[in-house]
Amino acid sequence: MVLCALRQQVLRCSSHCRTWARLPQRQRSGCVYSSIHGFNQDEIKEKLQAFHGGSIDLLKQDSGIAVLTINNPSRMNAFSGSMMIDLEERVSQLENWPEGKGLIVQGAAETFCSGSDLNAVRAISNQQDGMKMCMFMQNALTRLLRLPLISVALVEGRALGGGAELTTACDFRLMEAGSVIQFDHKHMGLVPGWGGAARLVHLVGSQNALKLLGGAVKVDPELGVNIGLVDGVLEGHQKTEGAAPLLQQAENWLSRYTKGPAPVIQAVKKVVLSGRELPLSEALRTEKDIFGTVWGAPANLEALASKSKHK
Length: 311
Ligand SMILES: CC[C@H](C(=O)O)C(=O)SCCNC(=O)CCNC(=O)[C@H](O)C(C)(C)COP(=O)(O)OP(=O)(O)OC[C@H]1O[C@@H](n2cnc3c(N)ncnc32)[C@H](O)[C@@H]1OP(=O)(O)O
Fold this sequence. Notes:
Elements: H1 2-22, H2 25-29, H3 41-49, E1 55-60, E2 65-71, H4 81-95, E3 102-107, H5 118-123, H6 127-145, E4 150-155, E5 158-160, H7 162-168, E6 172-176, E7 180-182, H8 196-204, H9 206-214, E8 218-219, H10 221-227, E9 232-234, H11 246-258, H12 262-277, H13 280-294, H14 298-308
Parallel strand pairs: 2-3, 3-4, 4-6, 5-7, 6-9
Antiparallel strand pairs: 1-2, 7-8
Helix pairs in contact: 3-4, 3-6, 4-6, 7-8, 8-9, 12-13
Bound molecules: ligand LZKTLF4L.
The site of ligand LZKTLF4L has 21 residues, from helix 5 and strand 5.
């Protein structure tokens, strides 16, 4: 009986994936929850809007690398309800940025983010509203991870609770020496709700994920690199004479992977996304379709023209 139920679940999932792959990009990018799951975006936005404070600031640069700043320094960059709405709107802006190639997510005032604003959490502590907030943030963070941009979470200070989950919604994580990522939900009698557990298992494996969540382990840069959660350690410029500002160091790191025409860099992210999320056959078909968007496109033709000169 159990096997039959599991098979049904797998079939439902794979049909969902097939459906996912055929959905228009906009829907695919945010298809975790919709009205069929009882999710009403406008209803939850109205509730979240009641909890003001802070902002999510977006700077789109001519280099094609954008900077998204979690900005609520008086609350260690905790997410108020209005900041959750800001985040979703900034992700929409980035989904529609043809020149975009990269994204750095950082916190203001030399710290990353201390999760949900506990004042908001206290006010929406009933189960229904809590789950609606989670659905809203899971949609927003899934769309963030699925942006056709190569993204980096730049961690200074502390990334706690939902802030730790936010780091997993980026392709890479860079940590300043001395900074900490801590999934401290257990101390709140909680587990991750913004999708951080599911993404953490993919990043570090289920055993390491169990340790980080079960032990509310303080992940320093060395541990983060060792378990595969962290992709680089940066020297804070206050601590190291002559070191460039952290954001500049992060941009230098990211620019190694975003050099080139935006359509090509965006196609790179899309083919990796489909390999990461879709069953093999679907991923191969998606890869073929994405290949078709760059084959014979301007960047390809220019490269061919320049190569033909090297006889
Ligand atoms: C799914 C996500 C999940 C959920 O929503 O269920 C969560 O994210 S739950 C929240 C998880 N986050 C935390 O548990 C972190 C709570 N904050 C702290 O542990 C400390 O504030 C810390 C370690 C971040 C900083 O400690 P420190 O002593 O250096 O400073 P203060 O504690 O005095 O903090 C300064 C100032 O910021 C306010 N603050 C900090 N974090 C939050 C927060 N998450 N929500 C609201 N306000 C926060 C703190 O109250 C202080 O304000 P003040 O007015 O000066 O008292």
